[in-house]
Amino acid sequence: MLNVVIFGGPGSGKGTQSERIAERYGLFHISTGEVLRDHIARKTDLGKLANSYISQGMLIPDKLMIKVLQHVLDTHPGETSRGVIFDGFPRTIAQAEELDRMLADRGTKISSVIGLEVPDEMLTERMILRGQQTGRADDNERTIKQRIAVYHKQTAPLKDHYTTSGRYTKINGEGTVDDIFTTICSYLDLI
Ligand code: AP5
Ligand code: MG
Hints:
Helix content: 55-70%
Strand order of the largest sheet: 2-3-1-4-5
Low-confidence stretches: none
Structural class: alpha/beta
Bound molecules: BIS(adenosine)-5'-pentaphosphate, magnesium ion
Strand content: 5-15%
Order of helices and strands: EHEHHHEHEHHHEH
Shape: globular
Radius of gyration: 16 Å
Largest sheet: 5 strands, parallel
Oligomer: single chain
Distance between the termini: 10 Å
């Protein structure tokens, strides 16, 4: 089983690369952001609550987010059998510890954490552009600034966490989508 965490700031290319990785390696792609946006679109109770955090560029509380991920894993036993690409989870140390536990319960573990490293100015440019092209609600200047700040404060410490346990691989996320994908594959092919 190949379980990959794709890690990086907002707009670093997690979703773009995850789709390609999922297709090439037959993995189930879980984007927690997409799961939440689907709830927002369907106006569920979770969606209403999630929107109050997402619109401010804040993280959804760990306890709730862990439940959401657990539910996705529990409801897709077949699709996850070859492995999962986790996109947007974990985002805190508490989530990382819980993910290790959830996978251990299933007799598996994280194979690798791929970190897409992109400077903040480029993240901002990409998200502003996407906001103009797609209208994604949290791609506005004020929320982007907050998302990047939250990333540095709450999520970036995971780099050290995964480096210490020998699981972190840094990838330069500044090239073309194709070049970055080739670099990721040359690494994953060795696992
Ligand atoms: P989420 O949906 O995960 O958003 P994010 O982390 O802010 O990241 P994005 O989806 O914006 O970017 P991405 O890294 O996927 O890049 P993409 O491939 O799209 O989370 C949204 C919110 O949900 C959070 O703020 C939080 O509130 C909540 N949430 C989600 N998970 C949570 C969790 N675990 N705990 C708590 N809260 C949680 O690329 C970005 C753009 O750049 C695209 O337009 C793309 O086409 C373009 N692009 C991609 N690669 C390149 C390239 N190489 N060159 C040029 N352009 C590129
Ligand atoms: Mg994404």
